[in-house]
Amino acid sequence: MTEPFTIAIDGPAAAGKGTISRAVAAHFNCAHLDTGLLYRAVGAKMLLGQDPADAARGLTAADTQGAGLRSPEVAQAASRVAVLPEVRAALLDFQRSFARRAGGAVLDGRDIGTVICPQAEVKLFVTASAEVRAQRRYAELVAGGSEVSPAQVLADVRERDARDRDRAAAPLKPAPDAVTIDTSDMTIDQAVTRAIGAVERARTG
Fold this sequence. Notes:
By secondary structure, the chain is an alpha/beta fold. It has helices at residues 17-28, 35-47, 52-57, 72-81, 85-99, 112-116, 130-143, 150-166, 188-204, and strands at 6-10, 31-34, 105-109, 122-127, 179-182. The chain has a single domain (6-192), classed as P-loop containing nucleotide triphosphate hydrolases (Rossmann fold, 3-Layer(aba) Sandwich), CATH 3.40.50. The protein has a five-stranded parallel beta sheet with strand order 2-3-1-4-5, with helices on both faces. The chain is globular. It starts with 5 loop residues before the first strand and ends with a helix.
């Protein structure tokens, strides 16, 4: 790709959208932005006592680096700051500019196809059952050394889902023209193949 071409990939936590997004970006040689890291970075700063809106306005690329952004505490903080309209507004221009860069871009998040890039050439909504997503998240956390119980992780997933769906600002939902990919019973390779196929059809269609 040489012209701007936006691939918007949305979905709830641990559905596989990050893995799919990275694979799609690599396949089509596009830039990739995990927009959730922007909110995690703001959430991490809030946990340190900074005002979320101020943190969003002053965010730098360096703030989105670091393994600490993947902790359960930061994930919950990210979900809390994501409901704040002033935080979302502060991050909007950055995401839209990234989306229209030459050579194409893949953005994954929760409102890319509905709010950030409603005119995206391709929109995917990646989902899975709460139980499957909780199992995946639990495995990640245990592998990272966290001491959590499966029941607590499932409760956290459901709590975050409810917060993301019910927030007034950009609630989590598929765009009307999004292709839904339910990864509950898919392997990673199957999900990636399905996503690449949807992009190919849009490019040639």
